[in-house]
Amino acid sequence: MSMRIAFDFRNVSLTPSGIGVYAATLVRELSLLDDLEIHLFGTEKTQFPEYRGVNPHILPSGPRFHWAAIRKFKKMNMDIYHSPNSGIVPLILGKKSIITIHDLVPVLFPDTTSIGSRLAHFFIKLASRKCGAIISVSETTKNDIERFWNPKTNIHVIWSGSDRIADAREIEIEGLELPDEFFLCVGTLEPRKNLSTLLNAYFNVLESGETLPTILVVGSKGWRRESKKLISLAERHPNKVRFCGYLDDASLALIYSKAKALFFPSIYEGAGLPPLEAAYFGTGIVCSAIPSLKEVFEEDAIFIEPLDVKAWEESISKLNNNSEFLDKLAENCHETAINYTFQKTALMTKDVYAEVFKYTNH
Predict the structure, then answer these.
(1) Is residue 334 very low, low, confident or very high in pLDDT (cuts 50, 70, 90)?
(2) pLDDT tops 90 at residue 64
(3) What residue ranges define each of the domains in the chain, with the CATH number in brackets?
(4) Fewer CB atoms inside 10 A, N or C side of the chain?
């Protein structure tokens, strides 16, 4: 007997954020599993895929979406509602719903988020106490949920995979000619990503007389004026930093595969997928010594305190001058990354569906 799953798919757009990427890739892998009938709830702006056993439903946008989703869920007698980013429908549907919580940024760093984001997290907090199960994208996020919200609901830790993009092909990236050698940063341009610390460290090494590869910065504009601040900072050495904006998966895969190393200086991440994805393509990782990244890479990546400019300088110089060390770093990071697959993510998610289904149908 198939479980009938309603999945909130609104975050999947032409240029999806991390949550949209999670939703799209998870549904792709869920569609390959037996005994699931998946119904995607979105709006006219949603990018619906065409997968076996997956049925798209276009609902009204804005606040009307929630009430339309509840009505359709009940009218079609569905079994489970899975929301990757909203608590309103799960709050109403209660035990038949599952929410994925990616991080608690609006709780931990409220000054870096909008009122809308904080309000959305308020509803997620309420829903976390009413829903049938919570999926957390890391032990770190689970610990944050328990510390700040303390719901009695079961929390299941399910990491995303590193293999979202299967391979890297030689393609032309519109508007971007890749240097022969480059360092890489990937992430939305917002203060929490801490790119200014990394760029200052990079420029300090340059100004010490060392020749360094160009840095490519991949990511959309984010919170307030951070992108303008970073572009202004890059004027210190305008030919050494390239802001690439948002890139599609094929372009991102190629850049991952060709980068000399990925630097990820974020102050906080619920999980942090760019290091995992880059490592999957055999790129060495230098990242912040924050719990979610240490949870994955343990001793395999280079970990640096986020605001320690001197330590970032030392890591940049070491990777630039020691190819043997860099090769070993890349090998170790790759061996870690290949253990994280979206097939595992989907199988574990299906297990959570089955648990909630059994509880609500006993």
Answers:
(1) very high
(2) yes
(3) 3-161+341-360 (3.40.50.2000), 182-337 (3.40.50.2000)
(4) C
